[in-house]
Amino acid sequence: QVQLVESGGGSVQAGGSLRLSCAPSGSISSNHCMGWFRQAPGKGREAVASIDSTGNTRYAKSVKGRFTISQDSDRIMYLQMSNVQPGDAAIYYCAAAVSVPPAIDWKKAGDYPYWGQGTQVTVS
Length: 124
Known about the structure:
Distance between the termini: 37 Å
Number of strands: 11
Structural class: mainly beta
Oligomer: single chain
Number of helices: 0
Radius of gyration: 13 Å
């Protein structure tokens, strides 16, 4: 069983930066895809970025060039958020899947069986 714990959320001024972390515990397969999703009030959950075990990264158009996803040797995943905008305010969730694209659709929440509890990002 995989458990995911997010951290790093908080309040940031528009134009500022923030870094989110997602630490997995339990057994995560060597073949995996991890992603960040976000959900703003009244909206559906949308994919932000993903990184898989082959090193491939993918970004939503709305964050490309501003956000950077990465993963360290302990499989902790990060989301470096730069030039944060009011539209980025949401609860951010990390997720993990035991397959890599194209076996899964990285943008599809239902393809990720493991989820963190979420961390709030507020933009002022």
